[in-house]
Structure formats: structure tokens, C-alpha cells
Recover the amino acids of this structure.
């Protein structure tokens, strides 16, 4: 119950926002650029992110710096569980596949992942600003309407 | 401003990868696991924190955001704005195409990202962590991107 996570995420956000603007990093743009124009730049960024995080997680896990999620074999079904909150495991996997696919598909149409959209909006892109309005509106709708609806349906 | 160091995507990957693990290992952003960076979930924690405090709702947010909201999304916005301003790239670009389409895409992506419990950044982070659900979600994400790009290519042709 401290403000430490708030400060840490603000600092990390500032840092990756800055570097992300300079590098034009996007988490869906790598595959798109490679397919369209054989440009592997963003794909290299994605790979660097994955390899770095994987290594750092392994080291932090061995040093006992991670929570009990690691000792449970990294099973974060509980993690997804508090967001989805309501779904049985098999269903959750099927839904994760559908939702993951949708995030990728729509992000191509939107011209960038959510991270990239925040960067674009910050540098003055009108479409990205509208996207963010929809994004935060969607978050609110999800919490206020969809989660309640789903819980009512599932608990009968 | 020639000659100034310009970070590339690989630099970003290393910085963000280390940072995402560091906030979890050292700064208490650990509920759930692999939660260091997420534009959707942290956005939810931010919006939820304010709505809960201002309007008295009981929206679910991460326990780590109970005292103060997670500020990743705000930080990214400000950091990117600062980078753009410092390098003469801060300028208004008017809306192209349908405004409603941008709005709807934003809303749809937010909802689907919250359902799968991660924006693309966090899905890759969860895969790096070893989350079995991400082993299913990340290939689905990539397949979605491939499908979307194929549609773009067909439209352009």
C-alpha cells in the first residue's frame, strides 16, 4: 500500500515513451513492415525486448526477486483471472486466442499497437488522439458494462 | 541537431525489457506476474483508480494500484511528447479518413486487450515470463497481424 508502483511506472513510462518516440517502436509494426517491405528493424526491436525480458526474468527468478508467481512455474492463470475474473480455464484459453487475434488484426488497421498510438498522439497525430479517446472509453465500458454483464451471465 | 545519438528499436527493446522486469523485481509492480509494462491493463488501473475514487465505483484494479494509480500510460505520453518536442517532431497532424473508425478501433482494441489481459507489449512480456496462456495468445496475436497486413496489401493492390 505505497505509492512506489505509481512512481516506478511513471519513470519507466517516461523512459520508454522517450526511446519509443525516437525509435518509432511498435509491437505489431515489426511483422507488418517485414511482410510489406521486408524491413526488419521493428522486428529486431521486438526480438530484443523478448530476449532481454526473458533473460532478466530468469535472473530475477533465480535471485528470488519475483513474487510467488515464479515458484508456481510461472503459471499466471490467476493473473489473467483477476482481469477476466470469471472464466473457466479452457474457455479462457479459447477466448485468449480469439481476443489476441483481434488485437493483432485491429491494431494493423489502426496503424500501430497501443504503445505506438500513445506515442503518435503525444507528437500530435489526430487519428491517434481519437484512438486514445476510444481506447480509454473502451476501458471504461469494459469495467462498467462488460465485466458486470459477463459475471451476471456466468453466475446465472 | 545532427550527430545526436538516436536510439533504435533494439535499444528500445533492451531498455523496456530490463525496465519491465525491474519494476516487478524491485519496485512492487507484481500483481499479477509479468505486469511491468501494459498499455491496456495499466490504463485500466489508472481509469479504474480515478473512477473508484471520484465516483465511488468498485472497478477491479491491480492491488498494486490501490494506493496510487499506475502511471505507465501517462509516462509514455509525456516521454514521447518530450522526445518529439526536443527533436522538432511535435506538430499537429489532422485526422485522415473516418474519425469514427479511429475511435471504434481504439475501443475495440482496449476491450479485446483487457479480455486477453495484455496489450501486445504485455503479451510478449508474459511469454518471456513463461505464462502458458501467452503461449496461445502471442501466436494468435501474430496471426492477427499477418491477417491484417494481408488485408492491407489486398486493398492497396
Amino acid at each position: 500500500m505505497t505509492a512506489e508502483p505509481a512512481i516506478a511506472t511513471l519513470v519507466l513510462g517516461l523512459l520508454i515513451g522517450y526511446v519509443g518516440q525516437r525509435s518509432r517502436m511498435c509491437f505489431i509494426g515489426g511483422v507488418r513492415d517485414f511482410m510489406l517491405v521486408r524491413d526488419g528493424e521493428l522486428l529486431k526491436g521486438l526480438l530484443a525486448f523478448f530476449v532481454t525480458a526473458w533473460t532478466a526474468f530468469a535472473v530475477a527468478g533465480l535471485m528470488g526477486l519475483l513474487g510467488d508467481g515464479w515458484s508456481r512455474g510461472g503459471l499466471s492463470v490467476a493473473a489473467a483471472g483477476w482481469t477476466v475474473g470469471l472464466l473457466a480455464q479452457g474457455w479462457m484459453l479459447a477466448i485468449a486466442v480469439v481476443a489476441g487475434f483481434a488485437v493483432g488484426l485491429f491494431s494493423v488497421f489502426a496503424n500501430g499497437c497501443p504503445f505506438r498510438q500513445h506515442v503518435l498522439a503525444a507528437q500530435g497525430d489526430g487519428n491517434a488522439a481519437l484512438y486514445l479517446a476510444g481506447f480509454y472509453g473502451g476501458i471504461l465500458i469494459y469495467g462498467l458494462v462488460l465485466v458486470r454483464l459477463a459475471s451476471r451471465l456466468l453466475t446465472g | 541537431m545532427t550527430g545526436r545519438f538516436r536510439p533504435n528499436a533494439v535499444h528500445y527493446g533492451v531498455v523496456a525489457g530490463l525496465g519491465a522486469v525491474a519494476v516487478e523485481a524491485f519496485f512492487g509492480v507484481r500483481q499479477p506476474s509479468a505486469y511491468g509494462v501494459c498499455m491496456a491493463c495499466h490504463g485500466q488501473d489508472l481509469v479504474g483508480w480515478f473512477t473508484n475514487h471520484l465516483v465511488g465505483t468498485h472497478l477491479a484494479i491491480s492491488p498494486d494500484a490501490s494506493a496510487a494509480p499506475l502511471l505507465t500510460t501517462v509516462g509514455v505520453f509525456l516521454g514521447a511528447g518530450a522526445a518529439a518536442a526536443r527533436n522538432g517532431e511535435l506538430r499537429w497532424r489532422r485526422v485522415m479518413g473516418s474519425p469514427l473508425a479511429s475511435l471504434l478501433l481504439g475501443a475495440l482494441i482496449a476491450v479485446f486487450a483487457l479480455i486477453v489481459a495484455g496489450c501486445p507489449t504485455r503479451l510478449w512480456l508474459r511469454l518471456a515470463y513463461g505464462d502458458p496462456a501467452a503461449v496461445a495468445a502471442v501466436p494468435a496475436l501474430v496471426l492477427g497481424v499477418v491477417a491484417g497486413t494481408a488485408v492491407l496489401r489486398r486493398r492497396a493492390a
Observations:
- Chain A touches chain B through 115 residues (CB under 8 Å).
- The mean pLDDT of chain A is 87.
- The helical segments of chain A are 4-23, 29-37, 41-62, 68-71, 77-84, 89-109, 114-122, 126-154.
- The radius of gyration of chain A is 18 Å.
